[in-house]
Design a protein that fits this description.
The complex is a heterodimer of chains A (116) and B (211). Chain A has three helices and no strands. By secondary structure, chain A is mainly alpha-helical. Chain A is flat, with a radius of gyration of 21 Å. With 211 residues, chain B is mainly α. Chain B has one domain (27-210): Cytochrome c oxidase, subunit III, four-helix bundle (Four Helix Bundle (Hemerythrin (Met), subunit A), Up-down Bundle). Chain B has helices at 31-56, 66-69, 72-98, 101-131, 140-173, 177-210. Classes of the chains: A mainly alpha (116), B mainly alpha (211). Chain A: Keywords: Cell membrane, Electron transport, Membrane, Oxidoreductase, Transmembrane, Transmembrane helix, Transport.
Chain lengths: 116, 211
């Protein structure tokens, strides 16, 4: 029933969970505060900041809540996670990048203005 | 290793028991890795929905823009509820390891209540938007918004069904190998949904309002 084996999700509770919770709360409150109370940063830097906070918070959740490390399940969970992260970045980043430029380059078409 | 497939069995087993799964895996057998792979594939579904939203995020079709329709106070409340539910689920797990079924059920029930609050507020937000003529049929932006946020909400709803199921199973069977394994999978599922929500509140709500 209960075995001495450690599973990826039963290790590091207690302190790790508390630290992760605190970090997660801070990393959530700051971007909301920046956007809701008027950011002291320029709009571009505000956007960069909230996305940076999101990426850091995702890593915090994966490490402290999902307990991903190099040893769990013989490293296969980490490998699957890294593979997924690459595909996710390619899918979202690639789509937005390509379609943004497609849009931008389509704008000055000569008959765009009088088509309505 | 004998060939199990050819041996006549009195009762078929549909899953690997603890003992059979022990070759080179942890206590819950290969289920954890399998469930992890499922979560990764679910992440790919959300990636395609995020990509779709990113592409049409400013295709308003003359309709409302995020600044006009998103209530960030409501989103902040919802984000707090989901994050709190992730933290309370984390509180349940040490009790599971120690074999204390009472505290596990308490933290699990609290997690479920917070999750139900999240889904309730999200449904209120959706109803409010549709009543304001900002439903999914208004523009490509709103179609993508309802698809992405709705898919996440559907996941959370299924998580709630799972939580209720586990509360009943814990009441009937207590903590055994099967309920522990299911609790570990459920905790991974629940934390995963909170991670997806980080992407939603950043990319959809915060970025939408300041764009």
């Amino acid at each position: 029933m209960s075995t001495p084996h450690e599973t990826p999700d039963t290790r590091g509770h207690g302190n790790g969970h508390r630290i992760g919770s605190l970090l997660a709360i801070v990393l959530t409150v700051i971007p909301f505060w920046l956007v809701m109370n008027g950011s002291p940063l320029s709009p571009g830097w505000t956007v960069a900041t909230i996305f940076a906070f999101a990426i850091v918070q995702i890593i915090v959740h994966v490490v402290f809540f999902l307990h991903l490390d190099t040893r769990s399940e013989g490293g296969w969970t980490l490998l699957a996670f890294l593979f997924t992260a690459v595909i996710v970045i390619l899918t979202i980043g690639g789509s937005v990048w390509v379609m943004y430029h497609l849009n931008a380059n389509m704008m000055p078409m000569p008959d765009m203005g009088n088509g309505h | 290793m004998t060939d199990h497939a050819l041996e006549p069995q009195a009762e078929p087993t549909w899953y690997l028991t603890e003992e059979e799964g022990h070759h080179d895996h942890g206590a819950a057998g290969p289920t954890i890795l399998g469930f992890w792979i499922y979560l990764m594939s679910d992440a790919l579904i959300f990636a395609s929905l995020f990509a779709m939203f990113g592409v049409v995020a400013s295709a308003y079709a003359g309709g409302p823009v995020p600044r006009e329709i998103f209530d960030l106070k409501l989103v902040a409340l919802n984000t707090g509820l989901l994050l709190a539910s992730s933290i309370t689920f984390g509180e349940a797990m040490p009790h599971m390891e120690a074999g204390r079924v009472g505290p596990v059920r308490f933290w699990l029930a609290l997690t479920g209540l917070l999750g139900a609050g999240f889904v309730g507020i999200e449904l209120y937000e959706f109803a409010h938007l549709i009543a304001e003529n900002a439903g999914p049929d208004r523009s490509a932006f709103l179609s993508a918004f309802f698809t992405l946020v709705g898919t996440h909400g559907a996941h959370v709803t299924i998580g709630l069904v799972w939580i209720v199921t586990m509360l009943i199973q814990l009441g009937q069977h207590g903590l055994n190998a099967a309920t522990r394994r299911r609790l570990i999978c459920l905790s991974m599922f629940w934390h995963f949904l909170d991670i997806i929500w980080i992407g939603v509140f950043t990319f959809v709500y915060l970025y939408g309002v300041i764009r």
